[in-house]
């Protein structure tokens, strides 16, 4: 139907205007008329569905309730089925074989079957329906009469049969007669009367316009005054009689008058002034009546004629006047749109005319943009102006708090965002244009959410993906421009904002989403954050290479803070959960990327800021009732302590290594986690948050990895380091490495003792045998390493593995030392009846014996080996006397003989 009307309009326009512009105008008007008829048909179908639904509801409510069965026992009845469901059949006494006190049958009210909305009618059916509506003969007659009068006036003007003044007077009299007769019949035959009045109004428009433009019988000022009067009269008549047909006839006739009587003149100011008067009449009617069809008629004619003028008669010197009238028409129809939403019927509350709301800015911007296109950045500034205007208008409507304006304000806000995003590609290159597609995709997704249309949501997501792909195609080109305000950064920011907003909208409307949209919220949010960090990191590398590491960490910190704040304010849990990734991401940037030290490139400022913000977020998260947030809190506290240990130890190691040599630079790797382990061990004794408030988390969850780290450091350093004290004299057990080892062992022992017997870690280790064995092994490694280092600095023995294996002095000293350790363990365990420790000491003594015969016999003639054999033998004898094997706990003392 729509395209058929467009073709008919093109033929009519070509026949009247005899040039290509007439064809284009006719086709456009035909297309718009088809859209109007389509919208009107849809509206009628909607009203019919509402009427049917009300009828069904009324019938259901009127249906009588079934009376309760009588209390007394009633014999069963023999009921003959009625021939039909009619009331008469049910109430026939013959259908009951035995009368009793049974209540009368219940009349059944037939419920009308729902009527399906008709499909889109064809052009012929539309015309037939219009003719049948109201008074068909009057409608056909007034249309034919109007065209006939127009053709007669044109023919008489061309052949000069009658004086010009007489012709105009005759036309005016005829129009007034139609108007008077219609007004007289307004009560008896309302539809017929309104049709006549519409024809009279159109005739008056035609007469005044012809008398002024064609024959100069009226001054322009007088003609404008008459046109204003006619518009006012038509508006008053239509409003008083509530006559939509009258308003449409009067308005359409006024708009068609200059088209039918066109002489090819290019006086656009007079034409547009005339159209301004007509549109003021439409505006006045909209003040009292919500007639969508009338608004669309005025919109179609106005912007159709303006578009035809732009295509055929426009020249650059007419820019100010033509553009001024265009923007005036735009403002008038914005007002008409607002009035329509204000005056609409309650049963259609929230309904917005899409043709005006979205078609008006599209038509205006297209015509306006074609006129200012030659000017540099003209389109960009125009799009920005439209965007700001619509956003401000949406804000004003939102502040009114009217339900009628809710959907309209949201539509205006969406248009403002779209025009604002359109300004960027018009001012920048195609890379930024691709990014603007993502913004438009976000707008479509938002509209799809509001209107519950999955296809709009899917297309919005697809448009964002296509925008990102198109943006990547040009990503390798050199970026020019100032910091931040360049195509790469702005484009990435647009993609990021569109993605994050889409993620939030999808999450907020997840209850109404389709099953296959379940994961879109997470994907869209991560997509937006990926573009955010890509643009931010790229811009930092380009503009701040000397501060790259610190700026990267600051960007991470600010992003995490924004996610937490907006996630809390908007009740968006996933955004808050994403802050968990702050510390792992910081570790990847500041540690795993392989810098010389963590505080490189101004990171000395960024790391403290990052930890402060992180702990602030943890502090506020304690009050969060979200279960996922509470489950993630221990991991966040642990990650902070672990990362703090790594960063601090690494930076201290790097700084000490610059100032001193020897073992000093290795000590921070062991002492830093030892300090943090000490804080964890005494967490319940520290006042306030976070240690005391989360003492169990720090003691049982944060501390074990630190303890394991210290154990590996103590064993590895003592086995591999020579313990060089730098500028200090090496003193056994009083050198930096041995002192650090003692401190670490004390911290490990303190932490283990602070654990309660009911703790999960103690339950997992059984009777605490394995932790004690591990601690004893660390002490054994440290003491042996301390002995070997003491021999090295005191007697010059080697420190390499081969040298130690072949050194008679070292092997003899180790044998004596191990025997002494076994002796002490056996004596100590015997006095405390600890059989397991005694067995460990005995095993160590056995190892010493085996070592004496396997290793030490190669140097049996040396004094060192002799001393070793004698010392170990004496210790064995003394041990056997002083510390016999303790009995098992389950064994009882033997009875005395």
From TrEMBL:
<protein>
    <submittedName>
        <fullName>DUF2339 domain-containing protein</fullName>
    </submittedName>
</protein>
<feature type="transmembrane region" description="Helical">
    <location>
        <begin position="632"/>
        <end position="650"/>
    </location>
</feature>
<feature type="transmembrane region" description="Helical">
    <location>
        <begin position="324"/>
        <end position="342"/>
    </location>
</feature>
<feature type="transmembrane region" description="Helical">
    <location>
        <begin position="411"/>
        <end position="428"/>
    </location>
</feature>
<feature type="transmembrane region" description="Helical">
    <location>
        <begin position="164"/>
        <end position="185"/>
    </location>
</feature>
<keyword id="KW-0472">Membrane</keyword>
<keyword id="KW-0812">Transmembrane</keyword>
<feature type="transmembrane region" description="Helical">
    <location>
        <begin position="518"/>
        <end position="537"/>
    </location>
</feature>
<feature type="transmembrane region" description="Helical">
    <location>
        <begin position="379"/>
        <end position="399"/>
    </location>
</feature>
<feature type="transmembrane region" description="Helical">
    <location>
        <begin position="602"/>
        <end position="620"/>
    </location>
</feature>
<feature type="transmembrane region" description="Helical">
    <location>
        <begin position="294"/>
        <end position="312"/>
    </location>
</feature>
<feature type="transmembrane region" description="Helical">
    <location>
        <begin position="217"/>
        <end position="237"/>
    </location>
</feature>
<feature type="transmembrane region" description="Helical">
    <location>
        <begin position="549"/>
        <end position="566"/>
    </location>
</feature>
<feature type="transmembrane region" description="Helical">
    <location>
        <begin position="243"/>
        <end position="262"/>
    </location>
</feature>
<feature type="transmembrane region" description="Helical">
    <location>
        <begin position="701"/>
        <end position="721"/>
    </location>
</feature>
<feature type="transmembrane region" description="Helical">
    <location>
        <begin position="773"/>
        <end position="796"/>
    </location>
</feature>
<dbReference type="Pfam" id="PF10101">
    <property type="entry name" value="DUF2339"/>
</dbReference>
<feature type="signal peptide">
    <location>
        <begin position="1"/>
        <end position="20"/>
    </location>
</feature>
<feature type="transmembrane region" description="Helical">
    <location>
        <begin position="733"/>
        <end position="752"/>
    </location>
</feature>
<feature type="transmembrane region" description="Helical">
    <location>
        <begin position="662"/>
        <end position="681"/>
    </location>
</feature>
<feature type="region of interest" description="Disordered">
    <location>
        <begin position="88"/>
        <end position="108"/>
    </location>
</feature>
<feature type="transmembrane region" description="Helical">
    <location>
        <begin position="454"/>
        <end position="473"/>
    </location>
</feature>
<keyword id="KW-1133">Transmembrane helix</keyword>
<feature type="transmembrane region" description="Helical">
    <location>
        <begin position="348"/>
        <end position="367"/>
    </location>
</feature>
<dbReference type="InterPro" id="IPR014600">
    <property type="entry name" value="UCP035905_mem"/>
</dbReference>
<feature type="transmembrane region" description="Helical">
    <location>
        <begin position="861"/>
        <end position="882"/>
    </location>
</feature>
<feature type="transmembrane region" description="Helical">
    <location>
        <begin position="137"/>
        <end position="157"/>
    </location>
</feature>
<feature type="transmembrane region" description="Helical">
    <location>
        <begin position="808"/>
        <end position="830"/>
    </location>
</feature>
<dbReference type="InterPro" id="IPR019286">
    <property type="entry name" value="DUF2339_TM"/>
</dbReference>
<feature type="transmembrane region" description="Helical">
    <location>
        <begin position="485"/>
        <end position="506"/>
    </location>
</feature>
<feature type="transmembrane region" description="Helical">
    <location>
        <begin position="837"/>
        <end position="855"/>
    </location>
</feature>
<feature type="transmembrane region" description="Helical">
    <location>
        <begin position="269"/>
        <end position="288"/>
    </location>
</feature>
<keyword id="KW-0732">Signal</keyword>
<feature type="transmembrane region" description="Helical">
    <location>
        <begin position="191"/>
        <end position="210"/>
    </location>
</feature>
<feature type="transmembrane region" description="Helical">
    <location>
        <begin position="578"/>
        <end position="596"/>
    </location>
</feature>
